[in-house]
Specification:
Helix content is 72%, strand content 0%. The protein is an all-alpha fold and 161 residues long.
């Protein structure tokens, strides 16, 4: 499986669209979360510059960048752990537990990003509000995919379908 770090969006999309099961929608959702964090980070850093170097916004931008890196690492882990599930021996539940832990980590990171936006969103300048809304929309899409994959949306797990 190729490393996601440093790949172009096009290369990531091609890897997800390839004729093998992994990476799949879990990795794609985490990549969307990384883009959400990037949008939030941009809104914060541009706003900080327009607010005379507002330290709180600068710090929020750095936290968003860290969240983006964490989301990309989770995309990689999800892809590897899903492949391990597919190749695990009957009765070996360790890969399933690892994949579940990946999903929980993604949901936790989404909550952290939302809290960051909640804490600093009002300081974002008007012209950057679209980026902040995009961050929340992308995070919401990631959460829907992740909850479906984990069977937390009231239906069958997307990985069991």
């Amino acid at each position: 499986m190729p490393r996601f770090e440093g790949q172009s969006i096009e290369a990531l999309a091609q890897a997800i669209a390839a004729d093998h099961p992994s990476p799949g929608c879990g990795a794609a959702a985490s990549v969307a979360l990384a883009l959400a964090a990037a949008c939030a980070g941009k809104a914060f850093i541009v706003s900080a510059r327009h607010r005379d170097g507002d330290a709180a916004l600068g710090s929020a931008a750095e936290q968003a960048r860290d969240m983006g890196r964490a989301a990309m690492a989770l995309a990689q882990r999800d892809a590897a752990d899903f492949a391990a599930v597919l190749h695990s021996a009957p009765g070996d539940h360790e890969p399933e537990h690892a994949l579940e832990a990946d999903g929980e980590a993604v949901l936790s990171l989404i909550a952290d990003l939302r809290a960051l936006v909640q804490s600093h969103g009002e300081a974002v300048i008007a012209v950057m509000e679209g980026d902040l809304r995009a961050a929340l929309d992308l995070a919401e899409a990631c959460e829907r995919v992740q909850r479906r994959n984990m069977g937390l949306d009231g239906g069958q797990s997307g990985r069991d379908a």
